[in-house]
Write a structure and sequence with these properties.
The structure is a single chain. It is built from seven helices and ten strands. β6 and β7 form a beta hairpin. The chain has 247 residues and is α+β, with helices and mostly antiparallel strands. It has a single domain, classed as PPM-type phosphatase domain (Phosphatase 2c, domain 1). α1 runs antiparallel to α2. 32% of the residues lie in helices and 28% in strands. The strands form two sheets. A five-stranded antiparallel β-sheet has the order 1-10-9-6-7. The longest helix has 21 residues.
Length: 247
């Protein structure tokens, strides 16, 4: 039996939230190239905005140039794009003292028909809603989440920890960095959500699942999620990028 061809639609919203004076989050996507990116920058002055924007632009540029004649697998192409983005940020910081130490979190979703490759660095996340079930596909590179995974801290303790902002891996802060990679097969109806931690720190997974399950256009779903995170506190910049697989 022939497998139905899957195609994708996407929408995204970003907001500086209620406490921050600027927005250091960045996102970008190309449905045609099958690449979707969310970044959450860090660094003094405007450095975080520069790092996140550099990352998004470089990854989109690299993966959008990929063609069918390429010998690279989807995973290889995505990892090479992330490596190039890391180098671009690190080099920029080395040549400008004001930008020293800047970096960004990163979550990338790359598609090739049903094949989906998710890569992340830091605590920006990717979720998948399938048949009413919400699964977090990525693992946070944060001090408290790593403590939870090792059994040294409960999830409740992690939520209350003053160290929850400490990131253990970031793009652009060192000359090399390795992303985590997760490869899955998309099914018609799958809804992927890429987001910065400004969303997940304000909304529980159950609240996110309930909102994503509503039969609304992606633009409305993403704006509803961002608005809910703002109403819940909006302590950080908030970005939500939704990608739906359909036939």
């Amino acid at each position: 039996m022939a497998t139905a061809v899957v195609y994708y639609t996407a929408a995204a919203v970003t907001d500086r939230g209620r406490k921050r004076s600027s927005n250091e989050d960045a996102f970008g996507f190309s449905v045609e190239a099958g690449v979707y990116v969310v970044c959450d920058g860090m660094g003094g002055a405007a450095a975080g905005e520069i790092a996140s924007t550099l990352a998004v632009d470089e990854i989109l540029r690299r993966l959008s140039r990929r063609d069918e004649s390429s010998r690279d697998t989807l995973r290889d192409a995505a990892e090479n794009a992330i490596s190039a983005a890391n180098k671009a940020i690190f080099t920029r910081a080395q040549t400008n003292r004001r930008l020293s130490g800047m970096g960004t979190t990163l979550v990338v979703l790359a598609t090739e028909d049903r094949h989906v490759c998710v890569l992340n660095i830091g605590d920006s996340r990717c979720y998948r809603l399938r048949n009413g079930r919400l699964d977090q596909l990525t693992l946070d590179h944060s001090l408290v989440e790593e403590q939870v995974r090792m059994g040294r801290m409960t999830q409740h303790e992690a939520l209350r920890s003053p160290l929850r902002n400490v990131i253990t891996r970031a793009l652009g802060t060192q000359c090399q960095v390795t992303p985590d990679v997760f490869e899955v097969q998309a099914e018609p109806g799958d809804l992927f959500m890429l987001c910065s931690d400004g969303l997940t720190r304000e909304l529980s997974d159950s609240a996110i699942r309930t909102m994503l399950a509503r039969d609304l256009p992606l633009e409305k779903l993403s704006s509803n999620l961002v608005d809910a995170a703002k109403k819940a506190g909006g302590h950080d910049n908030i970005t939500c990028l939704l990608v739906r697989a359909q036939v």
